[in-house]
């Protein structure tokens, strides 16, 4: 069931079109697409059509519609379009959407309707949209979510491997297919905009966001910008389809290349820190994926980073926050690279700039920021920016440029013609077909790093002993940005298959002991599943909250106990980044990096039992010790435990190495 539009759906023919055009003239209501297909109006109908605002005519070019609408807007309405609030700030009183002329809302991590179902999501977004359409010009709302590895806030959505695992697949086509599914599930439940993909280049695995990156090589990350096509389609007209969303590449630029110890945010060590680099190196390492995303895939929005840049080739250069860098946001990104979409700030990002709130707003908008994510202080932001414009400190030309970019996206998304959720694909959310693609992505992401004595693949007839908490924990498999910002351990939050369940689906004789305390005699194979628990952003930085690249005491003990007792021992690592396994590796016959596979543990079992071959390759360098970080391919002193690109392949009982 869908919500009814503001006006009844017209019948066919000249009379229905004339009534609709007249109503649109009087009320400013959005024209349904059927009006554009109606016969030309005559008589009174023609007069009504002539009075209809040109921006409501879907037959006109987008640029013309933008110009017409912009010319009708007041300063307050323009600034409203530049403002994005968190749904939690308006949910108790949705009329604030219209009162503030808000252009956008978002759901932050864990911000969901009750119940957290596809239909409730669509109802929620449509309810907010209804409020936006009561404004004078009836400009529809743009709703954004962090669909970073599936529609992560929605219980029951398909949960894919995080980007680090997708980088291991070396499969740009699969990345595009994954994001098309994510777009389909997201748009069917209301949001038309996602804050994904992350195209940062991770250069230090101590970073709490390392798993959000496709890898350490800018060439690999650039190849994976096919994610944009998965979200948006390959033509601008695709954006209006019910299976596409506006994409956001983030975080522009250099957030994965910051220097450990330079962050000044809370206890963070590297997240939101400073990228200390030359212009030449910045272009080659940090900027490259954005050039591809803009010029090859025409991404619609970009989110600047919290991080700063300090130039080593500019004497006296100090750190400049990305949200304040006119050089990078305007001169490089918009003018040199040719980005014609809009920039959306990160969560409350301008408050990390120097000065009072008005100075922060002025600095960022003059640097080139177009829309501002002000979760809980939208009124203050609008007042501050309005005062800065009226005082002449922010030129109206900058406001008009920002609003034009935002409106263009809304027209291209078809929101003026179809503002409410198209629920055509709502039954596909978490479907078996979608989860089958996720299962294949999991299998392709697994990286086999050691396979002595042909330990893998396993035979279903073998008696198997499985140990380790991460063998049977969906939340740990999924990691951060899953239902909540930081993620959560446990098996009750969303449907899926744990690694243990996948193994049991493949073999009949399996015993599980989370702490490896059960007797180990009588088994052919021991499988120890080690790894991390969920985290996100700077709270996952090594050195914060006990986070380290070292294995936990429990994981080391489980490896020692099982591998010393069972003749064939396999270790799986479920983590968002390489861990230090140098001391434990000799005890294992086989070692597999499983990354954060998401909801489909069957995909791990598929390669363990030879249903699919191991083909994954490391997207990052694996250090011998934490002290080696940062370590990256091309370093002059390069002596890792496993080099970038390494991965063993299996074909039946045959194992061979590949690198690249």
Produce the secondary structure layout.
Layout: H1 14-27, H2 33-37, H3 44-51, H4 62-72, H5 75-81, E1 83-86, H6 95-99, E2 104-107, H7 118-132, E3 142-145, H8 163-169, H9 172-187, E4 193-194, H10 218-223, H11 226-232, E5 248-252, E6 274-277, H12 279-295, E7 301-304, E8 308-311, E9 320-321, H13 326-337, E10 342-343, H14 357-367, E11 372-373, H15 378-390, H16 396-412, H17 432-445, E12 447-451, E13 464-467, H18 474-478, H19 499-506, E14 510-513, E15 525-531, H20 553-565, E16 568-574, E17 590-593, H21 602-608, E18 647-651, E19 654-658
Parallel strand pairs: 1-2, 1-11, 2-3, 3-4, 5-7, 6-8, 7-10, 13-14, 13-15, 15-16, 16-17
Antiparallel strand pairs: 8-9, 12-17, 18-19
Helix pairs in contact: 1-3, 4-16, 8-17, 9-11, 9-17, 14-15, 17-21, 19-21
């Amino acid at each position: 069931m869908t919500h009814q539009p503001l006006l009844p759906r017209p019948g066919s023919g000249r009379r229905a079109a004339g009534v609709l055009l007249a109503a649109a003239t009087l009320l400013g209501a959005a024209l349904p697409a059927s009006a554009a297909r109606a016969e030309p109006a005559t008589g009174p109908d023609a007069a009504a059509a002539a009075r209809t605002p040109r921006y409501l005519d879907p037959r006109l070019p987008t640029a013309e519609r933008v110009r017409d609408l912009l010319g009708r807007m007041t300063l307050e309405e323009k600034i409203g379009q530049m403002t994005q609030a968190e749904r939690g700030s308006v949910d108790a009183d949705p009329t604030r959407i219209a009162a503030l002329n808000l252009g956008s809302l978002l759901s932050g991590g864990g911000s969901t309707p009750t119940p957290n179902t596809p239909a409730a999501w669509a109802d929620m977004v449509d309810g907010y949209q209804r409020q936006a359409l009561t404004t004078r010009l009836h400009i529809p709302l743009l709703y954004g979510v962090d669909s970073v590895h599936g529609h992560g806030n929605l219980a029951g959505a398909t949960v894919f491997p995080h980007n680090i695992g997708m980088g291991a697949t070396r499969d740009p086509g699969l990345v595009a297919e994954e994001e098309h599914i994510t777009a389909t599930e997201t748009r069917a439940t209301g949001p038309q905009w996602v804050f994904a993909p992350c195209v940062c280049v991770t250069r230090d695995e101590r970073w709490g966001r390392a798993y959000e990156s496709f890898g350490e090589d800018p060439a690999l990350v650039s190849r994976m910008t096919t994610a944009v096509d998965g979200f948006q389609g390959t033509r601008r007209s695709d954006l209006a389809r019910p299976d596409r969303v506006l994409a956001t590449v983030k975080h522009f630029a250099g957030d994965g290349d910051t220097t450990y110890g330079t962050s000044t945010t809370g206890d963070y060590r590297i997240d939101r820190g400073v990228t200390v680099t030359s212009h030449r190196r910045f272009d080659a390492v940090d900027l490259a994926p954005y050039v591809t995303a803009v010029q090859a895939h025409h991404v619609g929005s970009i989110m600047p980073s919290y991080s700063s840049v300090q130039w080593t080739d500019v004497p006296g250069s100090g750190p400049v926050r990305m949200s304040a860098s006119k050089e990078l946001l305007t001169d490089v990104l918009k003018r040199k690279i040719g980005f014609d979409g809009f920039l959306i700030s990160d969560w409350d990002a301008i408050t990390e700039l120097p000065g009072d709130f008005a100075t922060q707003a002025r600095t960022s908008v003059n640097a080139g920021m177009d829309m501002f994510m002000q979760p809980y202080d939208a009124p203050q932001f609008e007042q501050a920016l309005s005062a800065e414009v009226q005082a002449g400190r922010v030129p109206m030309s900058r406001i008009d440029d920002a609003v034009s970019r935002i409106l263009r996206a809304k027209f291209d998304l078809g929101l003026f013609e179809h503002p409410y959720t198209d629920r055509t694909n709502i039954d596909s959310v978490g479907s078996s077909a979608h989860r089958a693609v996720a299962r294949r992505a999991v299998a392709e992401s697994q990286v086999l790093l050691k396979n002595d004595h042909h330990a893998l693949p396993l035979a279903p007839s073998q008696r198997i002993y499985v140990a380790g908490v991460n063998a049977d924990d969906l939340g740990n498999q999924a990691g951060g940005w899953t239902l909540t910002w930081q993620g959560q351990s446990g098996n009750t939050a969303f449907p899926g298959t744990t690694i243990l369940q996948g193994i049991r689906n493949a073999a009949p004789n399996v015993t599980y002991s989370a702490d490896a305390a059960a007797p180990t005699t009588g088994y052919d194979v021991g499988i120890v599943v080690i790894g991390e628990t969920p985290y996100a952003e700077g709270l996952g930085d090594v050195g914060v909250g006990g986070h380290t690249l070292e294995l936990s005491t429990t994981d080391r003990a489980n490896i020692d106990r099982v591998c010393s007792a069972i003749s064939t021992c396999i270790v799986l690592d479920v983590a968002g980044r390489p861990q230090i396994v140098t001391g434990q590796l000799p005890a294992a016959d086989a070692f597999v990096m499983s990354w954060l596979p998401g909801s489909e543990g069957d995909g791990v079992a598929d390669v363990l039992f030879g249903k699919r071959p191991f083909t994954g390759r490391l997207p990052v360098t694996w250090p011998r010790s934490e002290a080696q970080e940062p370590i990256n391919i091309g370093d002059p002193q390069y002596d890792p435990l496993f080099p970038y690109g390494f991965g063993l392949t299996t074909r039946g009982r045959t194992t061979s190495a590949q690198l690249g």
